[in-house]
Write a structure and sequence with these properties.
360 residues; 5 strands; single chain; Rossmann fold; 2 domains; alpha/beta; five-stranded parallel sheet; 15 helices; 53% helix
């Protein structure tokens, strides 16, 4: 997130609700827009609108948002600064995060009328046209992107192919018998949102139960617990480490990645930790409804991390996976909602921010 807007995290709910009333006409335009952006970011982190969807589809994903409010805040900001294309991109992303792809596409098309060279708007239009099966719109916009920047476009067309292919992933539900038996192998346990008092929720516990069995089966393997987002001064990683230690795993075996706030950052930060530590292989542990997305992001993160590598090690670990089955239907069903979410995160992983200038 842009440091200028970091104060949004500490904004109270009452302050956020009152923003549109307290933004004075006498304030400079930049300040009025900034206040609205801060409020939008507050709701992004402190809402709960998508938890309804989480229960239906994304049971293994940490979700915090309240997009109806965010939508109105960005609309207010656009009224003040109608030429600001970043704000329009923010609004389009808000539609997308509500799975209203049609409204998002219309917004991206409007942006391209004003700025036909806006790479990110055209890229998102192409990406989600692919998700919905609109091959004509996809092909037309990819051709224009290739004319604009062939090398950059090639990176994303490869990524879009991988999004299609990940639907074929055979999600493992039992700990494999053929994993490496040395200390260069890691089990990577992905976190899940803590309750406000810092207690783990059932989803996290289920993932940890698999990790515990795996750690006992492979006693030389190390464990990396991944997840930040503190509640009551405890991060997801800290809580997971304490649980594993309390259940008999030596603390020196359990390493922390406690800065990430979402799956994209889980992948980027964890893979860098693994490379730095010389890991040659890693097994992801998360929920079945989360696995395709996590596995693809971790695999892609390997190339990204190595391209900016500061470690003496020059290889990303070979990945395997095992999942807690939170929904049996997801094992053989790769639907549009999941593909939407994966596409969102693949774009973010590759540098296309969800909310330009505000939030990756």
């Amino acid at each position: 997130m842009n440091p200028v807007n970091s104060q949004a995290i500490t904004m109270t709910k009452k302050q956020a609700q009152e923003v549109t009333e307290t933004v004075q006409k006498t304030m400079p335009t930049e300040q009025r827009v900034s206040d609205l952006e801060d409020a939008a970011i507050y709701y992004y982190w402190n809402g709960g609108q998508l938890k309804k969807n989480e229960k239906k589809v994304f049971k293994g994903i940490t979700i915090k948002s309240n997009f109806d409010v965010i939508e109105q805040l960005f609309k207010e900001a656009i009224k003040i600064d109608p030429q600001n294309l970043n704000l329009q991109m923010d609004l389009a992303s808000t539609y997308r995060m509500q799975n209203n792809n049609a409204a998002a596409a219309k917004m991206w098309q409007n942006i391209l009328k004003k700025d036909p060279t806006n790479f990110d708007a055209r890229l998102k239009l192409a990406a989600f046209s692919s998700v919905t099966g609109d091959t004509a719109t996809y092909d037309d916009n990819i051709a224009k992107l290739q004319a604009q920047n062939a090398e950059k476009t090639a990176t994303f067309t490869k990524a879009f192919s991988q999004i299609d292919e990940i639907g074929k992933l055979d999600i493992q539900t039992k700990i494999p018998n053929d994993l490496p038996k040395d200390s260069h192998h890691y089990f990577v346990v992905l976190g899940y949102a803590l309750s406000p008092n810092g207690k783990m929720q059932p989803t996290m516990k289920k993932r940890l139960e698999i990790a515990l069995k795996a750690a006992k089966k492979y006693p030389k393997s190390k464990i990396l617990v991944a997840g930040g987002v503190p509640e009551n001064k405890l991060t997801e990683a800290t809580v997971m480490q304490k649980w594993l230690v309390a259940h008999g795993i030596a603390k020196k075996r359990v390493e922390l990645e406690d800065l990430s706030t979402n799956t994209v950052e889980n992948a980027l930060f964890s893979v860098r930790e693994l490379v730095d530590r010389g890991a040659t292989s890693a097994t992801l542990i998360t929920s079945a409804t989360h696995m395709r997305r996590a596995f693809l992001l971790y695999r892609m993160a390997g190339d990204i991390v190595l391209a900016s590598n500061t470690s003496k090690n020059d290889k990303a670990p070979v990945l395997t996976q095992v999942a807690y089955v939170d929904d049996k239907k997801i094992l053989n069903n790769y639907g549009t909602p999941e593909k939407n979410a994966i596409t969102d995160d693949v774009l973010r992983l590759n540098g296309v921010w969800q909310l330009p200038g505000l939030q990756r």
